[in-house]
Design goal:
This protein has 2 domains: 338 residues, Alkaline Phosphatase, subunit A, CATH 3.40.720; 100 residues, Arylsulfatase, C-terminal domain (2-Layer Sandwich), CATH 3.30.1120.10. Helices cover 31% and strands 17% of the residues. The protein is built from 15 helices and 17 strands. The strands form 4 sheets. Strands 1, 2, 3, 4, 7, 8, 9, 10 and 11 form a 9-stranded mixed beta sheet that branches. The protein has a 4-stranded antiparallel beta sheet with strand order 12-15-16-17, covered by helices on one side. The N terminus is likely disordered.
C-alpha cells in the first residue's frame, strides 16, 4: 500500500512538471475561441490594410502573426442581417432579417416598389453557433452589440454584457454614465470600449480551465462618432491621410486596437495563446459619413465592395502560418461550419447551414472551396446618398453574386444588371454587362437558381405613394 502511495505521488509530481501545452493537450482539441466583431469597420480602416492615417499596431501585429483573408465578405451591407447570418449560418432569405428596422427607410414618395417585410428578431427556431458549441462543452459570452433580440442568453450564450436589441450605443453613447445589461457605470469618465474589454478579460480569466467562446462584439466604430478627448487630440495634430481624415473616428479605431491588444495580452499571461482560435472581422463596410473605403466603391448600406468587403484575420497556432494571405472569397455564413470543424462539434440534427467550412484554407491558403458562388439579397431601401443611378437612396432593393473574379448586381426597381471583374477592376468602375453578355447571362442564371433554392422574395408590388407623387408631378 505504501509503495502504491509513493507511485501516485510520483505520477502527480511528473504531471505537475509537464509543460502546460502537454497538460492541456486534451483541451486543445477544443480550442478556445475569441471572436472580435467590430461594427462598421471598413476594409481599408487598418494599418495592415494600407491606412495612412489610422493607427492599429496591435491589430497589425495580429495580422503579421496570422492568416489574412483579402476577399472576405459580410452577408449584408448593414448590421442586423449580417449578424443574423453569422449566428445562424443562413443567408438572409432563410431567417428574414434583411435590414435594420424598417425596410422603407427614406422618402415614401421616392420608392417605386413596396419592399419585402423585415424581421427584427432572430427566431428561436434558429440554432445559433453558441447553442451548438454548448453541446460540446463550451461556455459562451456575448459582450457588446447583439442587435438580434432582447437578450443573447435566450440564444445559447451563458453570459450577456451590454447586449440588447440596440443597434448603436444607448443613452449617452460611448461615455459613462451608462446603463447596459450587466454593465452599469454611474460615474463619468469611463469609455464603453474599455469597459467591454475589461469584462472580456475577466471572462477569460474566470474560464481559463475550460473551453470558451468569447464573442466580443464592440459597438465601436458605429455612430455616434465619440472618442476619448486625448486620443482625438493626437489625431487632430497629425497630418491627415489622402482619403481618411476623421480624427474622432481614428481615435475610436485606436480604442478598438487597444482592446485587441489587451485581450491578446491576457491570453499570453494565462498561457492560453497556443490553445485559442482568434478571429478579427467586421459586420459591414465603413460608414461613408465617417471614413473612406478607397479604393473600394461605395460604403455601408451598398452592395458595392465598399459596403460588404471586410477585413478578416484568423490565427490558430499550429494551423495558420504567420504572415500568410488567402484570396479565396469567404462570407459570414461560413463561420458556423468552420467553427464546428475546428472544435470537433457535431452539427445538430435538422440544423441547416448555407455556408462552407474554410478550415482547409487555414491549413493551405492556396486551396479552393467547393461552392460555385456567394450571394447577397437585400430587398429593402436605405436612405442616404450613393445610388449609382442618381436616386435619393444609398441603395434601392438589389441582389448580388460573386462567382470567381466576376460580380453581378441586379437592381429590382429597374431590372438593371451591372457586371464587374474584380481581378482587374476592384473599384467597380467599368460595367461589363454590355461587353461580356455571356458572362452576364451565366452569373444571372446562377443567381436566379439560388434565389429559387432559398425562396428569396423579390419586391414587385408598386408603391401607390410613388405613383400618386409621379402623377402630381406630371400634371404640373
Amino acid at each position: 500500500m505504501r509503495l502504491f502511495f509513493v507511485l501516485c505521488l510520483t505520477v502527480w509530481s511528473l504531471l505537475g512538471s509537464l509543460p502546460s501545452s502537454v497538460v492541456a493537450a486534451e483541451r486543445s482539441a477544443k480550442p478556445n475561441i475569441v471572436f472580435f466583431f467590430i461594427d462598421d469597420l471598413g476594409w481599408a480602416d487598418l494599418g495592415y490594410m494600407g491606412s495612412d492615417f489610422y493607427e492599429t499596431p496591435n491589430i497589425d501585429r495580429l495580422a503579421a502573426g496570422s492568416l489574412v483573408f483579402t476577399d472576405a465578405y459580410a452577408c449584408a451591407p448593414n448590421c442586423a442581417p449580417s449578424r443574423a447570418c453569422l449566428m445562424s449560418g443562413l443567408y438572409t432569405p432563410r431567417h428574414g432579417i434583411f435590414t435594420v428596422g424598417d425596410p422603407r427607410r427614406g422618402n415614401d414618395k421616392q420608392r417605386k416598389l413596396e419592399p419585402i417585410e423585415n424581421e427584427t428578431v432572430l427566431g428561436d427556431e434558429f440554432v445559433t453557433i453558441a447553442e451548438t458549441l454548448k453541446t460540446n462543452g463550451y461556455t459562451s459570452a456575448s459582450m457588446g452589440k447583439w442587435h438580434l433580440g432582447a437578450d443573447p442568453t435566450t440564444q445559447g450564450f451563458d453570459v450577456n454584457i451590454a447586449g440588447k436589441e440596440w443597434g448603436s450605443p444607448s443613452g449617452g453613447g460611448y461615455h459613462s454614465p451608462f446603463k447596459y445589461p450587466n454593465l452599469t457605470n454611474d460615474k463619468p469618465g469611463d469609455y464603453l470600449t474599455d469597459a467591454l474589454t475589461r469584462e472580456a478579460c475577466s471572462f477569460i480569466d474566470e474560464n481559463r480551465e475550460r473551453p470558451f467562446f468569447l464573442y466580443l462584439t464592440h459597438y465601436a466604430v458605429h455612430t455616434p462618432i465619440q472618442a476619448k478627448d486625448d486620443v482625438t487630440a493626437k489625431y487632430q495634430k497629425k497630418t491627415a491621410g489622402e482619403h481618411q481624415k476623421n480624427a474622432k473616428y481614428a481615435a475610436m479605431i485606436e480604442s478598438v486596437d487597444d482592446s485587441v491588444g489587451a485581450v491578446l495580452k491576457k491570453l499570453d499571461e494565462l498561457k492560453l495563446t497556443d490553445d485559442t482560435l482568434v478571429i478579427f472581422y467586421s459586420d459591414n463596410g465603413g460608414f461613408g459619413g465617417a471614413t473612406s473605403n478607397h479604393p473600394l466603391r461605395g460604403a455601408k448600406g451598398m452592395l458595392y465592395e465598399g459596403g460588404i468587403r471586410e477585413p478578416l484575420i484568423v490565427r490558430l497556432p499550429g494551423v495558420t502560418q504567420p504572415g500568410s494571405r488567402c484570396a479565396e472569397p469567404v462570407i459570414g455564413v461560413d463561420f458556423y461550419p468552420t467553427l464546428l470543424e475546428l472544435t470537433g462539434t457535431k452539427q445538430p440534427e435538422g440544423c441547416q447551414l448555407d455556408g462552407e467550412s474554410f478550415a482547409s484554407l487555414l491549413r493551405d491558403p492556396t486551396a479552393k472551396l467547393k461552392r460555385e458562388a456567394i450571394f447577397w439579397h437585400f430587398p429593402c431601401y436605405l436612405q442616404g446618398s450613393g445610388d449609382p443611378h442618381g436616386g435619393p437612396f444609398r441603395t434601392t432593393p438589389a441582389g448580388a453574386i460573386r462567382k470567381g473574379d466576376w460580380k453581378l448586381i441586379e437592381w429590382f426597381e429597374s431590372g438593371r444588371l451591372e457586371l464587374y471583374n474584380l481581378a482587374d477592376d476592384l473599384s467597380e468602375t467599368r460595367d461589363r454587362s454590355k461587353s461580356d453578355p455571356q458572362k452576364l447571362e451565366e452569373l444571372h442564371a446562377v443567381m436566379k437558381a439560388w434565389r429559387k433554392q432559398v425562396d428569396a422574395p423579390i419586391p414587385t408590388q408598386p408603391n401607390p405613394q410613388y405613383e400618386e407623387s409621379a402623377k402630381k408631378a406630371k400634371r404640373k
